[in-house]
Design a protein that fits this description.
The protein has ten helices and eight strands. By secondary structure, the chain is of the alpha+beta class.
Length: 456
């Protein structure tokens, strides 16, 4: 029993020792690293090397003959800072960039990396890559102007990758990415260029903006003009349609309007004719009424006045005849009486004028003065006749002596023409009214004019 226990214990110890030995001799590689087993000979691409590499796998290390080294294949960030690198044209530039490098995991670059970086840390590898890339940056800047390096960074990086690729290949490094972040200069050259170009850009932008605004305004004007033209065309079309509609309506209503107008005209004609007939009847009525009211009474009045005038005319004729006979008799007696009859007749004719002669109704102009003998109040009749004759001559301008002489000279014709009582013209005095004007010719002696009467 004790022997079995001892054997079991020995077996367990032996198994544990074997496991520990296998674990220490078995090497396992992760995907992001390469295991280098140094000490054994190996052939790589036809050449003999003293190591073998394992990537993403496992291998058994030969104890006491091989050594195990690990190389990390993950990216290494390298910051590039180049200061005072002269560009084409002699302008010093400052370049800031970032690069990512890594160790290769396959041949033939792996051999170069094993030879140069086996056993080194990542910081040391990054320092070597930084120095190499800074040198490449300086070499590329010498071929570019500051404007090209600053404006076209992609071309700058492309040239830098082309130049750095060869160096990285020889060193056993892989350049994954390279980015240039900033390109500056201490002399403010790029700043001045930027200002100039900024001014040009602003000027171009202003020109473009002004041109754009002008084009926009022109386009706006064109659009407005087109819209106005379209609106006017639409209004014109609407107006034409409205005009055509009105013309059609007018044409359709023309016959009705003509018939209506014709009916109105015929009605007016009939009304006018009826009014004419009514006015004719009224005119006949008015004429009859006028004849009954005015003409017949006036005609009767006219006949009455004519008869009255005939009676008065006959009376006047008879009176004239009587006066003519009386005057004829007077002349005969005057001729028979002799000179004294003349004086008596003159005195009889002058007696009505004594009141006018004696009275002083108006200023008297003395043209002639006759002196008579001074006698008493009972003077002779001759003196009184002379005084009266002179007074009549002064007042009326009638010389009674001359009148009597003419009457005496014409006594031989008394039988054929009776003398008038007096041929003296009447004298207009302030107290006597002027003689009435003679009646108009053609007026009836005994008929008054008809009064005017308005007849409707």
């Amino acid at each position: 029993m004790e022997i079995v226990t001892v054997l079991f214990f020995v077996a367990v110890v032996a198994f544990g020792f074997i496991l520990y030995t296998l674990k220490s001799l078995l090497v396992v590689s992760s995907p992001n690293e390469v295991i280098i087993l140094s000490g054994s000979s190996n052939h790589v691409e036809g050449r003999a090397v003293g190591y073998r590499s394992i990537r993403g796998g496992r291998a058994v290390r030969i104890p006491l003959l091989e050594r195990v080294d690990r190389m990390d294949l993950s990216n290494i960030a390298v910051e590039i800072w180049v200061k005072g690198a002269y560009s084409k044209g002699g302008i010093p530039l400052n370049v800031n960039g970032v690069a990512h490098v890594k160790l290769p995991g396959e041949e033939p670059r792996l051999s170069n990396a094993v030879e140069r970086f086996l056993g080194r840390t990542r910081e040391e590898i990054a320092a070597v890559a930084r120095e190499t890339l800074e040198g490449n940056v300086r070499g590329v800047l010498a071929q570019l102007t500051p404007e090209e390096a600053n404006q076209d960074k992609e071309a700058f990086v492309s040239k830098l990758l082309d130049e750095a690729e060869h160096d990285m290949l020889r060193m056993g490094l892989i350049l994954d990415t390279l980015k240039i972040q900033n390109v500056t200069d201490d002399a403010n050259y790029l700043n001045s260029i930027g200002r100039i170009r900024g001014a040009k850009v602003r000027m171009s932008a202003s020109v473009v903006e002004a041109t754009t605004q002008a084009e926009a305004a022109e386009q706006k004007s064109d659009n407005w003009a087109q819209s106005e033209i379209a609106r006017l065309d639409a209004d014109l079309a609407i107006g034409r349609q409205e005009t055509e509609r009105r013309i059609k309506d007018a044409q359709s209503r023309r016959e009705a309007m003509i018939a209506e107008s014709r009916g109105v005209v015929l009605a007016q004609i009939a009304q006018t004719r009826a009014e004419i007939e009514r006015q004719k009847a009224r005119a006949v009525q008015v004429e009859r009424q006028l004849e009954a009211d005015v003409i017949q009474p006036e005609d009767a009045e006219r006949r009455r006045m004519e008869e009255q005038a005939r009676g008065e005319a006959a009376k006047i004729v008879e009176m004239g005849r009587a006066e003519a006979l009386a005057l004829h008799s007077l002349v005969e007696q005057f001729q028979k009486a002799g000179p004294q009859a003349r004086e008596v007749l003159a005195l009889q004719q002058m007696m009505p004028l004594l009141s006018q002669i004696v009275g002083a109704h108006h200023p008297v102009r003395v043209n002639k003065m006759t002196f008579l003998p001074a006698e008493g109040a009972d003077g002779s009749l001759a003196r009184q006749a002379i005084a009266t004759t002179e007074q009549i001559r002064a007042a009326t301008g009638v010389d009674l002596t001359e009148v009597v002489s003419r009457l005496g000279g014409g006594s031989g014709r008394a039988t054929s023409r009776p003398p008038q009582a007096a041929s003296l013209p009447p004298r207009n005095t302030p107290s006597s009214p002027p003689p009435a004007p003679p009646p108009p010719p053609g007026a009836s002696a005994g008929r008054a004019p008809l009064p005017a009467k308005s007849v409707t």
